[in-house]
């Protein structure tokens, strides 16, 4: 019964934008939503931390925020859409950044979240990204072994850092010289920094770069 209802709903919205549900013709995401995205320029599309530098395609706001929430809420096809946006964004970065034999890794979700959601959205995005760019991909070297609170429920930077502290565990050896970590959102940077710290603890010479669909501030 549930599968029949899902198919019926999908049929109703077949020609509708997957983000706002308005008519979109043959476009997966309508022009109105895409025009509302705040795309970062080369002067404000990165943020540097001690462990990692992170490049972000857009601002986590408005319609883009709605899209990422929709991806996490079950609209799995948005992973391919955002993966393609990241690929286009990656191509705009300098050769000094791109021209390395990166191992692509997603920020992993805890097994309970994957069970609830049915998938890890960052893994889907990262797989598409790696397949199209020809880079190697893995999601079996590091796991998230701690079920953390949702970061958007924590507004203090120290709470966020404590929440994600020791959340990741290396379960297989890492032999890469350069790692490209993919996540959907950068806010305080606590998650990506903790992930990089986990790698650097036993692999201090590995170069780690991050790329995200969106970031929660304007880097000004």
Written account of the structure:
This protein is of the alpha/beta class and 220 residues long. The protein folds into 2 domains: 36 residues, no CATH class; 179 residues, 3-Layer(aba) Sandwich (Rossmann fold), CATH 3.40.50. It has 9 helices and 8 strands. It has a 6-stranded mixed sheet, sandwiched between helices. Strands 5-6 form a two-stranded antiparallel sheet. Helix 9 links the parallel strand 7 and strand 8. Helix 4 crosses helix 7. It is globular. It starts with a helix and ends in a 5-residue tail after the last strand. The mean pLDDT is 88.
Properties at a glance:
alpha/beta; single chain; globular; six-stranded mixed β-sheet; Rossmann fold; 220 residues; 9 helices
Write a brief structural summary.
The protein is of the alpha/beta class and about 220 residues long.
């Amino acid at each position: 019964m549930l599968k029949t209802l899902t198919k019926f709903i999908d049929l109703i919205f077949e020609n509708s934008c997957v983000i706002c549900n308005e008519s979109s013709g043959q476009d997966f995401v309508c022009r109105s939503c895409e025009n509302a995205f705040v795309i970062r320029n080369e002067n404000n599309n990165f943020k540097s931390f001690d462990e990692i530098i992170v490049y972000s395609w857009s601002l986590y706001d408005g319609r883009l925020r709605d899209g990422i929430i929709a991806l996490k809420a079950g609209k799995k096809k948005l992973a391919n859409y955002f993966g393609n946006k990241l690929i286009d964004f990656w191509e705009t970065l300098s050769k000094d950044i791109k021209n390395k034999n990166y191992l692509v890794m997603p920020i992993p979700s805890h097994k309970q979240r994957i069970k609830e959601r049915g998938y890890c959205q960052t893994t889907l995005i990262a797989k598409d990204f790696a397949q199209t760019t020809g880079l190697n991909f893995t999601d079996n070297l590091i796991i998230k072994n701690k079920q953390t609170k949702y970061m958007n429920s924590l507004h203090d930077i120290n709470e966020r850092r404590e929440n994600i502290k020791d959340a990741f565990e290396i379960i297989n050896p890492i032999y890469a010289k350069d790692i490209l970590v993919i996540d959907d959102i950068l806010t305080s940077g606590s998650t990506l920094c903790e992930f990089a710290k986990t790698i650097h603890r036993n692999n201090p010479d590995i170069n780690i770069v991050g790329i995200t669909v969106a970031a929660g501030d304007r880097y000004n």
